[in-house]
Fold this sequence. Notes:
The protein is of the alpha+beta class. The chain has 15 helices and 14 strands.
Amino acid sequence: MLKKLLKPTIQNKMLIAILPLLFIQVVIVGSLTLFFAIQEFNTSINQYINQRKNDAIYLSEKSEILDYLQNIHYDLEDEAILYQQRLEELYKGFINRTKLKNDRIYKKISFINKNGKEIAKIDSESKYAKNTYQNLSDNDIFNKTKTIEPNKPAIEIISKDEMLVYTPLYLDLDGDGIVEYNGAIITKAIYPADEFKKAAILSLSLTFVLVLIGAAIIFTTITVVKKLIEPIHALVGVTNELSAGNLDAKATITSHDELGQLSESFNRMAEELKHNINELEEYKNELEVKVAQRTEELEKSNTDLSEAYKKLKSTQAQLVHSEKMASLGQLVAGVAHELNNPINFIYGNMPHLKNYINDFKLLLGKYEDSKIDTEKISDINKLKEDINWDFLLPDLDLLIKDCYNGAQRAKDIIQDLKKFSRIGEAEFKYSDLHEGLDSTLNLLINSLKNKIEVEKEYGKLEKIECYPDQLNQVFMNLLSNAIQAMPKEKIDSKEAKIWITTKQIDRRVIITIKDNAKGIKEESLKNIFDPFFTTKPVGEGTGLGLSITYGIIEKHHGKIEVESKIGEGTMFTIELPIHQKDYSPQKAY
Length: 589
């Protein structure tokens, strides 16, 4: 039986799901009923006890007590007896008013003075007439009243059906504001424990009935579930046949309720499945043909894409070359000017050199024609004076020196230009970055001289593995941009500056190029390295300089960052690995 119940059938699953819920429901309902019954029982007890406390406070606050005690205090015994009688009448009336069903609640009410003497009392039955509180000063009950706070009665259950309520009296008899203990009100009331027990038994009986009802519901649920599951078992069998490949399997329809509708839907599904499988086979054949055609088209597209990629790489190389040519074109005027000055030194001094040499020839000729006798010496001295011999000899040295310096300057400019252009270096090589920076600055000397002050702060760097010509192109682009962005008013006021700093941190080098030009707007910074993006006016920039710069730095496994603020200038920071195998740059600044 247990093995049958443990089978993973729908019936068992439903029973497993429903039975615990029903059981929990019954337990919860029964527990709640019992809980609320106990709560009601406790509430009834508390209400009964609190009411007895309130009655005791009510009696302790009656003016007859104060009047009696004040008359005794002032030795007015006749008046005190009168108030004692009034107290007994008050207690008698109070006992008659408070009843529980047909029985009185209070069996006795007593007023005891501070010496323990019972002054006034009322017994509800004759059997309590002899039960007084004489000599209560020696009794624990009386002493207990002296420890109770004012207006906070104490309860004591003295038997299963009796309880005592103690209420101390703290009064100001002299009217001087001093409150003293002056006795107590002690009431004996019934304690209806039997009534409360009856209520508790009734609640337990109700809970037991609810449990029986829950058991009946569980039994009924099991029977209904078994009846409902039988058609589902039959439908499961047909489903297994269909899953095994029998597309002609049909469910038997025995009713027109939800299960009958489910069987009809199953049969329609089986028919549609059979039809769809046939269509799927046809689609499969068509798809194979289309896949073959699409594969041929993709192969052709892949070939076209490869050709396009080759053209794109070629175009990219041409763009890089065009940008370099554009940069070189901007240098032509400055290079021509720089070459013109040293060449002018040579050209301008050549006539003087020619004349000096002719004069030397003439002088030497005279010496050859003369036998250098005394008579000829005066002629030679006169000739020396005519040709300014004393000036000619030292000036000839200066002239030759100027020619040499001019030629040297022309040579240096050509060397720097060759270092910058370095076309055709296709492999990484170790190069000195400071040499590349200085060569680039020399080529830009015409744009910088007497216009922009360049401050260099070079650190100690190792030679790095790189493409030197490409890094020179990076320096040229950044420095050219800084020069072109410099406002005219800063150039005129001699405030224009460019700072170049280098340093080495671990296996990386950091190069910063900073200017105090007009700066770049914040919204343009995010696109500053995009191809064809430029902040220059139309016709003044291709928008490729910084894009090519970014590509070169990325090619060297480095990174470049830009910071700029309008009116304060721009700073580019380049980070490069010393060796290309160390190409994991980390932020070091």
